[in-house]
Amino acid sequence: MGTTLDIKIKRANKVYHAGEMLSGVVVISGKDSVQHQGLSLTVEGTVNLQLSAKSVGVFEAFYNSVKPIQVINSTIEMVKPGKFPGGKTEIPFEFPLHVKSNKVLYETYHGVFVNIQYTLRCDMRRSLLAKDLTKTCEFIVHSTPQKGKWTPSPVDFTITPDTLQNVKERALLPKFLIRGHLNSTNCVITQPLTGELVVESSEAAIKSIELQLVRVETCGCAEGYARDATEIQNIQIADGDVCRGLSIPIYMVFPRLFTCPTLETTNFKVGRVPWSPCPSFTAVPGCCAQGLAHSRCSVHSCSHWRPGGPTFSAKH
């Protein structure tokens, strides 16, 4: 068995906030003693941007001007050149999560076209005849919760054949009416999106009713911006031909790594959509229709549920 490196972060959930102390231990394990040229630990946070395939070639300046954005980068020398004994050696470390005045620790976010990631990397340098050892470990950064009282902003929505977005032959659709409401369009990201909907009438038998959570990411430069919407998750809230006039609860938890509070910078944005969404549903066998409610409100977040209906924002 050769020598191995491992990084163990003190907090089990690996979640930290700006200004806190990131701590843990580096573990060196091996049957025999190992000679090394030093052990270093690097904390790094980067924002990686990319354009979707449909935008390739449209914004050539984007590729020339935008590189991975470095949020934080700091290295400490943990151990000077020497030798580690056989067995297990644990070396504790502490890293203050502070950035320069012109930088911000954005919340960890794993998107399709915008990716914000924070990592710890341990490097053990060895002689020319032995391969250097490297171990990388990701930790999570959450934004500091906002102070002040949260005020909910409820909104009602209605779905009919006239409000559908993706239908070519509207006249062939059966008549239906779905009403509902969201308890708030201004959501706390640590709390679920809640509300209810009611199928008032439908000529055709309903197969299912689903909610689709969509993220909207914008990236680019002064030459132009590309905005893309991608699905995060899809949950079924009703199965089969539901009873008419029955209230169906809406309850959706935001997946933290794939959603984040509103984020807007010079080169990228997550959220702020000028249109409004609502639950997707299947009203006819083989036909998935997207409903658009006639309501609109300001959006402050990356978490939008789609197809059409009230938009909402998520924040701490």
UniProtKB/TrEMBL annotation:
Keyword Transport appears in the UniProt entry: no
UniProt GO BP: endocytic recycling; intracellular protein transport
Localization per record: Endosome
One Pfam family per UniProt: Vps26
Family membership: Belongs to the VPS26 family.
Self-association and partners: Component of the commander complex that is essential for endosomal recycling of transmembrane cargos; the commander complex is composed of the CCC subcomplex and the retriever subcomplex. Component of the heterotrimeric retriever complex consisting of VPS26C, VPS29 and VPS35L; within the complex interacts with VPS35L. Interacts with SNX17 (via C-terminus); the interaction is direct and associates SNX17 with the retriever complex. Interacts with SNX31; the interaction is direct.
Name by which UniProt lists this protein: Vacuolar protein sorting-associated protein 26C
Species, as recorded: Bos taurus (Bovine)
Gene (UniProt): VPS26C
